[in-house]
Design goal:
The complex is a heterodimer of chains A (330) and B (295).
Chain A (H helix, E strand, L loop, with lengths): L13 H7 L1 H20 L2 H24 L7 H16 L5 H23 L4 H21 L16 E2 L3 E2 L3 H23 L2 H11 L1 H6 L4 H27 L9 H14 L6 H17 L5 H15 L3 H9 L9
Antiparallel strand pairs in A: 1-2
Helix pairs in contact in A: 3-7, 3-10, 3-11, 3-12, 4-5, 4-6, 4-10, 5-6, 5-10, 7-10, 8-10, 11-12, 11-13, 11-14
Chain B lengths: L2 E2 L2 E2 H32 L6 H19 L3 H22 L9 H23 L15 E3 L4 E3 H23 L1 H11 L1 H6 L4 H23 L9 H16 L4 H21 L7 H12 L10
Antiparallel strand pairs in B: 1-2, 3-4
Helix pairs in contact in B: 1-5, 1-8, 1-9, 1-10, 2-3, 2-4, 2-8, 2-9, 3-8, 5-6, 9-10, 9-11
Classes of the chains: A mainly alpha (330), B mainly alpha (295).
């Protein structure tokens, strides 16, 4: 097996320079304003779906983009948390925020187990192990009684947030989701720009060298994996509340593939890439649902085109063209 | 009927036979994956879809052209191998210098496209494929009843698996292949056309998947989903066995199939996940896999 270090999946640390460039600060502010205004212009449920998937993709990107670890089993954390949250809120009657936190904690615990197993191998083996472990979660979800098999957990009550805010109001629900997703993104942004994030990038570029510098790389990879799983769980739990549904779709391997595509399309290792990718994929899917075109064929085609033509993703290519960051060596 | 381990022997041997058949498919598919990975450093996510394609080619040959099982056994692998050749030449070839993960992502996209297209065309329900007349009926072995076709599947896959092992480990062409796996530049300097060898290796690996698809057609129904259900288990098999050895891939595949069959008798609820549990245990005990080498 060759080493993956020299060619690295990811190209440029856009982030540091990005936030120093005044143009991008303006761009982020504009994006924030657009997000606040969005429910008045677009169908709120649609924007909430985009936001949940954006957080999911950002969580996934933390692993692949900054740690160089390709997980093909993130659906387990997304869908697993959706089941836990839905069950906690509907059957146990817990408050919404506690339900979401339980889902997040459940995914973190699952991430700890899966991560500990998967980081024992590198590269494509890592991808295959995460895929297989996630399939185990899928089969378990198919058989356990509390998930209700093919039906899923339906009619999950949205409840009230902190006992005050009624989430059945679409606007209240929207701003709650926005707050959750922004909080998740801030956590990722902080993690990436902390010393921890720097060590993670060092491991991505050259693991042997990081080891020889005295870093216990396994621990860093495991922490990154758990953090990524927990945030994917946060996204999944929130999605269960928004759609009042937790189903097998969320734990299937196709979902793991979808989040890979979102991140790849937007740009692996860029901060905004996954958000752009999630918005594009969700829009594309809701558009295709109205046509006769088979969705998987189009999604698969996007994969092929991305891998062959623009591996840096949309945001990655744009920032390279606009020279926001120095062009990375190819 | 006798009792073995407190289980009626008829049920036990029946499930073990099913397990052995599943194991034959695991072996054929993981062998193809191992051969491709050895040469191309690509994990072929499209393997399951190409297995499905093999079964569909056989079904289409029969239902559209009236071409029977025997010819399908020859033609379907050729068609699948030919498609593999085109995919390698036009797409995979561009990715060899990049991170291996891009090969995985590309083949994943191809798998989605293939499966999606067949699903769109034929729906999710399976199409029946009749057992060829020659292989109908069965043998009474005394302790169990062995349907002829199932016996044929096990025999055919064993012959193909060990034939592949022999070709790679014991012939001159296999020696070139192994040398090119170790050091392609040096082998090319000796005047061997390595790029053609790479293309043919990929074509051969996916042709094995197509062959497995034809074998599977009369047992499982021909459905667009048959590949993706199987391939994730095969990935677990590959992790358990390690991709270092051809013989290891074959033995792991057969062994895990048997174990899965045994689980179906003893504790049926766990039969879907037993392979994944074994994968987790192997990762804890011997991360490189049972037959793998730690690098």
């Amino acid at each position: 097996m060759g080493t993956s270090s020299s060619t690295g999946v990811v190209t440029s640390p856009v982030a540091v320079a990005a936030f120093r460039a005044p143009g991008l600060v303006a761009l982020s502010l504009a994006g924030l304003v657009a997000l606040v205004a969005a429910p008045f212009l677009l169908y709120p449920i649609f924007v909430m779906k985009v936001l949940c998937f954006a957080l999911f993709a950002c969580a996934f990107n933390l692993l692949i983009g900054f740690g160089g670890l390709l997980s093909f089993g993130h659906a387990a954390f997304f869908g697993g948390a959706a089941y836990i949250t839905a069950h906690a809120v509907k059957v146990w009657g817990l408050p919404t925020e506690v339900g979401i936190l339980l889902g997040t904690a459940g995914s973190a615990a699952l991430g700890l187990v899966f991560g500990a197993l998967a980081i024992r191998r590198q590269g494509i083996y890592f991808a295959m192990i995460t895929l297989a472990l996630a399939q185990m979660v899928y089969f378990t979800a198919l058989q356990l009684p509390f998930t209700h098999g093919e039906d899923g957990i339906q009619a999950v009550p949205r409840g009230t947030l902190f006992g005050v805010i009624d989430l059945n109001d679409p606007l209240a629900m929207y701003y709650t989701v926005l707050a959750v997703c922004l909080a998740g993104c801030v956590i990722i942004w902080r993690a990436v720009h902390s010393p921890f994030g720097q060590v993670l990038k060092a491991i991505r570029e050259n693991e042997q060298r990081a080891v020889s510098l005295g870093y216990r790389t396994d621990r860093y990879k495991l922490v990154a994996f758990v953090l990524s799983a927990a945030l994917a769980g946060l996204a999944g739990g929130t999605k269960a509340i928004v759609f009042q549904l937790a189903s097998l779709t969320d734990v299937q391997w196709q979902m793991s593939g979808e989040v890979v595509l979102m991140t790849l399309l937007g740009g692996m290792g860029t901060l905004f890439g996954p958000v752009v990718g999630a918005a594009l994929v969700v829009t594309l899917e809701s558009y295709l649902a109205a046509t006769n075109l088979p969705v998987p064929v189009v999604i698969g085609g996007c994969f092929v085109v991305c891998v062959l033509l623009f591996r840096k993703g949309i945001v990655g290519e744009l920032s390279a063209r606009l020279r926001i960051t120095p062009r990375p060596p190819v | 009927m006798g009792i073995v381990f407190g289980i009626p022997s008829q049920a036990l041997f029946g499930q073990l036979l099913l397990g052995l058949i599943n194991g034959s498919f695991y072996a054929l598919l993981s062998l193809g994956l191992a051969v491709i990975f050895g040469m191309l450093n690509v994990i072929n996510m499209a393997h399951g879809a190409l297995y499905m394609l093999g079964a569909f080619v056989a079904w289409l040959l029969l239902s559209v052209c009236g071409v029977g099982y025997g010819w399908a056994l020859l033609l379907a692998p050729l068609v699948v191998g030919g498609i593999g050749l085109v995919l390698e030449r036009t797409m995979l070839r561009r990715l060899y210098r990049l991170d291996h993960l891009y090969g995985l992502l590309l083949t994943f996209g191809l798998a989605l496209m293939l499966e999606g297209a067949f699903r769109h065309q034929y729906g999710v329900s399976g199409q029946p494929y009749p057992i060829p007349d020659l292989l109908k009926g069965g043998q009474n072995l005394g302790f169990m009843f062995l349907p002829n076709y199932r016996g044929w599947v096990i025999a055919a896959s064993l012959v193909v698996c060990f034939g592949t092992w022999f070709a790679i480990e014991r012939t001159r062409l296999g020696a070139y292949l192994r040398a090119a796996t170790e050091n392609p530049v040096l082998v090319q300097a000796f005047g061997i056309n390595v790029p053609v060898m790479v293309s043919l290796t990929y074509a051969f690996g996916v042709a094995l998947a197509g062959f497995a698809g034809v074998l599977a057609a009369p047992i499982y129904q021909v459905s667009p989903l048959m590949g993706s259900n199987l391939i994730i288990i095969v990935f677990a098999v590959v992790v358990i066995g390690g991709m270092g050895s051809i013989l290891g891939a074959i033995l792991t595949g057969l062994g895990l199939g048997l174990l899965e069959g045994l689980t179906k008798v003893v504790y049926p609820e766990a039969s879907n996940i037993v392979v994944f549990v074994i994968m987790a245990v192997v990762l804890l005990v011997k991360p490189a896999g049972l037959f793998g080498r730690e690098k």
